[in-house]
């Protein structure tokens, strides 16, 4: 069954015609070319596919695109400013080298930005608990946690440009 | 995934009518169990009936000493709800320990209860808090709800619309969770309610159950010591690569003690 869906993706109105069983992750990557959203496990465990749907983080590999009809979606491509200035959370990941191979990074950043909504002053313990739905196969958690801590602070102070 | 039709009815009555019209249709709430099941081709519904556009299924409200949670309310919403947090901290805590943040943003209380996964958290709360499951056609008492492995008292084509939790005098939840899935290997909620002390156990058996012996002991002495020497028999408990039936039986006692501690604040 083909469905025509309307979504706002990274601030732009998008219309896609997809099968009813298409996953949101596939539609973002294949139909809309937003390949920053990664598919790691495809089983709802690793969190690499995390995007925001109507302001909350979800695993886009475990959501039908049909379920996002009418929704506002933000992917990793939608975080930075139009002039390329990184979002404070992205800048913090860069500053603290919160990545090794980088595959999990888009999901980590999207999850961390959602943490700012729920617990803007999260402790290290709360950050680690929050990131349970995101797996880093390189096991680079220490710098990820440091990055998230800095990112949360910088988001409250209005952000700063990553140290070059 | 196999092909299916997709519908978004706008009222509970329309959902029920759609289910009546097609016996191979399936309801999807948050989809946290159903979508992985579809991806593995373990289910082949003709039609997915999505509950997301039914406004009456959403939200939390307080109604004369009862917290009423709409079936489509997500775990994250229950966790963060100010009324639940202040009046019912154990319920907020339980919701905040389900799965991970992204799962809590999609998974719903109605979906969790209807699916009746033996390791799901909510069934322990339903039993311990003596909740009432309200469906499109009737009310189901907590003690009648969970009937077996992934089995409930719900009839074909019947949907949960809301869950009513009478506010307990005090309640606590403790779970020994699987470190990867965060499902309960054993989870115990202990509550002092208007209908006495109730102990709900999930994760241990094929479906959630109460432990009358612990309830009686706690009624006369609400302290961790009261349950410390009460063991449930391992005979009917689950055994898998994560924990043997004997270990689960042991964990029921340990989690019950911790739940009492939590309830005592």
TrEMBL record, chain A:
Q: Show where the 2Fe-2S ferredoxin-type domain sits.
A: 3-79
Q: Which superkingdom is the protein from?
A: Bacteria
Q: Which UniProt keywords are listed? A: 2Fe-2S, Iron, Iron-sulfur, Metal-binding, Oxidoreductase
Keyword Oxidoreductase attached: yes
Q: Does the keyword Metal-binding apply?
A: yes
Q: Which PROSITE patterns match?
A: 2FE2S_FER_2
Against InterPro entries, the record matches this protein to: 2Fe-2S-bd (IPR002888), 2Fe-2S-bd_dom_sf (IPR036884), 2Fe-2S_ferredoxin-like_sf (IPR036010), 2Fe-2S_ferredoxin-type (IPR001041), Beta-grasp_dom_sf (IPR012675), Diverse_Oxidoreductases (IPR051452)
State the Gene Ontology terms under molecular function.
2 iron, 2 sulfur cluster binding; metal ion binding; oxidoreductase activity
Q: What Pfam families is this protein classified in?
A: Fer2 (PF00111), Fer2_2 (PF01799)
- What is the protein's given name? Carbon monoxide dehydrogenase small chain
- Species the sequence originates in: Caenispirillum salinarum AK4
Q: What is the lineage of its organism?
A: Bacteria, Pseudomonadati, Pseudomonadota, Alphaproteobacteria, Rhodospirillales
Automatic annotation (TrEMBL), chain B:
Which protein, by its recorded name, is this? Carbon monoxide dehydrogenase medium chain
Q: Which SUPFAM superfamilies match?
A: CO dehydrogenase flavoprotein C-terminal domain-like (SSF55447), FAD-binding/transporter-associated domain-like (SSF56176)
Signal peptide residues on this chain, from the entry's feature table = none
Q: Which SMART domains match?
A: CO_deh_flav_C
Q: Name one GO molecular function term.
A: FAD binding
Alphabetical list of PANTHER family matching this protein? XANTHINE DEHYDROGENASE SUBUNIT C-RELATED
Domain (FAD-binding PCMH-type) ranges: 1-170
């Amino acid at each position: 069954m083909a469905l025509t869906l309307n979504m706002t993706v990274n601030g732009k109105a998008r219309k896609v015609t997809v099968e009813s069983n298409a996953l949101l992750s596939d539609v973002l990557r294949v139909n809309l070319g937003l390949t920053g959203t990664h598919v790691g496990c495809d089983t709802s465990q690793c969190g690499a596919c995390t995007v925001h749907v109507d302001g909350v983080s979800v695993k886009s590999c475990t959501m039908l695109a049909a379920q996002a009809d009418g929704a506002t979606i933000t992917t990793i491509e939608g975080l930075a400013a139009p002039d390329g200035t990184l979002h404070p959370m992205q800048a913090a990941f860069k500053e603290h080298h919160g990545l090794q191979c980088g595959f999990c990074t888009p999901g980590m950043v999207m999850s961390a930005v959602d943490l700012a909504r729920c617990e803007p002053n999260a402790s290290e313990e709360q950050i680690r608990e929050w990131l349970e739905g995101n797996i880093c196969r390189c096991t680079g958690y220490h710098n990820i946690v440091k990055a998230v801590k800095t990112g949360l602070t910088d988001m409250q102070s209005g952000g700063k440009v990553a140290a070059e | 995934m196999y092909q299916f039709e997709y519908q978004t009815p706008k009222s509970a009555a329309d959902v029920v009518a759609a289910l009546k019209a097609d016996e191979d249709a399936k309801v999807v709430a948050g989809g946290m169990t159903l979508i992985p099941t579809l991806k593995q081709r373990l289910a082949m519904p003709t039609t997915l009936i999505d509950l997301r556009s039914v406004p009456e299924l959403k939200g939390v409200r307080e109604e004369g000493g009862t917290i009423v949670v709409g079936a489509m309310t997500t775990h994250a919403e229950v966790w963060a709800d100010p009324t639940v947090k202040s009046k019912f901290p154990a319920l907020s805590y339980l919701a905040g320990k389900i799965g991970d943040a992204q799962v809590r943003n999609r998974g719903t209380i109605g979906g969790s209860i209807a699916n009746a996964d033996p390791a799901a958290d909510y069934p322990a709360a339903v039993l311990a808090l003596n909740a009432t499951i309200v469906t499109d056609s009737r009310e189901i008492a907590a003690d009648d709800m969970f009937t077996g492995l992934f089995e409930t008292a719900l009839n074909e084509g019947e949907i949960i619309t809301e869950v009513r939790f009478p506010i307990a005098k005090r309640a606590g939840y403790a779970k020994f969770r699987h470190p990867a899935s965060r499902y309960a290997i054993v989870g115990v909620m202990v509550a002092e309610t208007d209908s006495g002390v109730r102990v709900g156990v999930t994760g241990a058996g094929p479906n959630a159950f109460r432990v009358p012996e612990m309830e009686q002991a706690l009624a006369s002495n609400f302290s961790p010591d009261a349950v410390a020497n009460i063991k449930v028999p391992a005979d009917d408990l689950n055994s898998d690569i994560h924990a043997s039936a004997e270990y689960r039986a042991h964990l029921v006692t340990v989690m019950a003690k911790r739940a009492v501690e939590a309830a005592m604040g």
